[in-house]
């Protein structure tokens, strides 16, 4: 078999079980593609020796058991991996090699998965375009028709999205604080799910905003997302926010039958200035779900308009607190000091050298909103708005809504450099359809369902009830079957 790297996780699993391929052959195919794809900037720490060792061990075990045995994956640089550089794409963690494994990667490796390397991302997961990375930009494998301009793969999980879309790996891990799995998935024509907050352990994942961060899979289709999410999920006593709930067999729940389900269409997501292609995509997706037997209902989420400002108070506040540890004393790079410099100068120089501009911006905003005199005016008010947003969702789910359909992004992928130097607020608006899901702790999934006039992929988002990822994945599966999105980027790298 040729082009083994193009396989889905499910197809590779079945081929491994039948003895049609070996884990070593799968891994070598991916490693070969990775070596030819440096132009994408997706893999920033390659681990071919580890990958081949894990693949040989998977073949030795045999492939009758775990779904992921011998499956080559990419790991976002936010997940601590023992003995392998883990920088969160930041200069302040240059040279850091953890002595421990994150819970997620530990579970994946225990399930037999193969690590091809670490993937690019925005620094400390702060960004929507993968342009804040100390490694340089990740690049979307898609291009506009007749245009050779480099496009963003989205962020912060841009390296993960680019790697999966370009078939450099069979799947990848991502994290989502305000849309960082779903937005890059939509920009690159892949599937990405953010599970319910607490479904997947955060232990060993470098923190951005602890009450919002959640890890999830980025895959080539919905079935693969179900398989990978099952392996990543589960209670972890090392994470105080981890839910002690059984993990269903998500893949077994993929019937595609959504007859009798009620899908909500929130009027507040119909925003002025939304491109015609996004509006049409949403209408088409609604029609697809209706044709599949679902009932379509208009709903209201009245506090949606306050979600973005609330998010950009809460997330920087938590980032300011979490990143205080990187001071050159407890953790991280320490700047070279001049004679006579004291501890204040050491802190200032270290953090100025170690952090990029976007991280500094968010740390300063977060410190400001947490400071005396502003805590109640900004942070506490944002927390109250968050509670109202959560209550909006609880109300519509209590009224019998099974899932909510919205656009995943306000546009297709934009060009690298087009927004990074503009008003930061314009970049933040990329999260307009996704941040509510994090604020409410709900599961959300992005499914590719069409292309725009330039041939770029577009995704729709489904938002589900808490802890009902299986039902959400099944609705996404029905949408995927109806959309029949099979487009792939033309190889140029």
From TrEMBL:
Superkingdom of origin organism: Bacteria
Enzyme class: ligase
GO molecular function: ATP binding; glutaminyl-tRNA synthase (glutamine-hydrolyzing) activity; transferase activity
EC number annotated for this UniProt entry: 6.3.5.7
Gene3D superfamilies in the cross-refs: Amidase signature (AS) domain
Coiled-coil region: none
The Amidase domain, residue ranges: 25-473
Function: Allows the formation of correctly charged Gln-tRNA(Gln) through the transamidation of misacylated Glu-tRNA(Gln) in organisms which lack glutaminyl-tRNA synthetase. The reaction takes place in the presence of glutamine and ATP through an activated gamma-phospho-Glu-tRNA(Gln).
Protein family per UniProt: Belongs to the amidase family. GatA subfamily.
NCBIfam families: gatA
Protein known as: Glutamyl-tRNA(Gln) amidotransferase subunit A
Organism annotation: Thalassorhabdomicrobium marinisediminis
Lineage: Bacteria, Pseudomonadati, Pseudomonadota, Alphaproteobacteria, Rhodobacterales
Gene symbol of the encoding locus: gatA
């Amino acid at each position: 078999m040729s082009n083994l790297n193009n396989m889905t996780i499910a197809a590779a699993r079945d081929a491994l079980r039948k003895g049609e391929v070996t884990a070593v052959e799968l891994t070598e195919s991916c490693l070969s593609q990775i070596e030819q794809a440096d132009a994408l900037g997706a893999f920033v720490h390659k681990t071919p020796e580890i990958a081949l060792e894990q693949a040989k061990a998977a073949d030795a075990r045999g492939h009758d058991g775990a779904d992921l045995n011998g499956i080559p994956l990419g790991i976002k640089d936010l997940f601590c991996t023992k003995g392998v550089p883990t920088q969160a794409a930041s200069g302040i963690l240059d040279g850091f090699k953890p002595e421990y494994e994150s819970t997620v990667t530990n579970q994946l490796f225990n399930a037999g998965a193969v690590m091809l390397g670490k993937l690019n991302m925005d620094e400390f997961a702060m960004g929507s375009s993968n342009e804040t990375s100390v490694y340089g930009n990740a690049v979307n494998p898609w291009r506009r028709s007749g245009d050779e301009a480099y496009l963003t793969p989205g962020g912060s999980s841009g390296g993960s999205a680019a790697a999966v879309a370009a078939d450099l790996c069979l799947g990848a891990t991502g994290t989502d604080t305000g849309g960082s799995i779903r937005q890059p998935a939509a920009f690159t024509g892949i599937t990405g799910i953010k599970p319910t907050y607490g479904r997947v352990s955060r232990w060993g994942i470098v923190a951005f905003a602890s009450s919002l961060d959640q890890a999830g899979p980025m895959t080539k289709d919905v079935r693969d997302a179900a398989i990978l999410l099952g392996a990543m999920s589960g209670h972890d006593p090392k994470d105080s926010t981890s839910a002690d709930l059984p993990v269903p067999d998500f893949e077994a729940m993929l019937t595609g039958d959504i007859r009798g389900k009620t899908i909500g269409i929130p009027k507040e997501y119909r925003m002025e200035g939304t491109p015609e292609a996004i509006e049409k995509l949403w209408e088409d997706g609604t029609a697809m779900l209706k044709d599949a037997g679902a009932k379509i209902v208009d709903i209201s989420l009245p506090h949606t308009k306050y979600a973005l400002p609330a998010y950009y108070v809460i997330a920087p506040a938590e980032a300011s607190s979490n990143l205080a540890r990187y001071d050159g004393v407890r953790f991280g790079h320490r700047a070279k000091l001049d004679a006579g410099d004291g501890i204040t100068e050491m802190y200032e120089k270290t953090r100025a050298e170690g952090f990029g501009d976007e991280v500094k911006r968010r740390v300063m905003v977060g410190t400001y909103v947490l400071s005396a005199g502003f805590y109640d005016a900004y942070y506490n008010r944002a927390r109250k708005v968050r509670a109202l947003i959560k209550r909006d969702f609880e109300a519509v789910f209590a009224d019998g809504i099974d899932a909510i359909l919205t656009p995943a992004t306000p546009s297709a992928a934009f060009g690298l450099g087009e927004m990074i130097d503009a008003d930061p607020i314009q970049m933040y608006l990329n999260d307009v359809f996704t941040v509510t899901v994090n604020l409410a702790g709900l599961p959300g999934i992005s499914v590719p369902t069409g292309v725009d006039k330039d041939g770029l992929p577009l995704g729709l988002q489904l938002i589900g009830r808490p802890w009902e990822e299986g039902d959400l994945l099944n609705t996404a599966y029905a949408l995927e079957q109806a959309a029949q999105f099979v487009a792939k980027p033309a190889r140029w790298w």
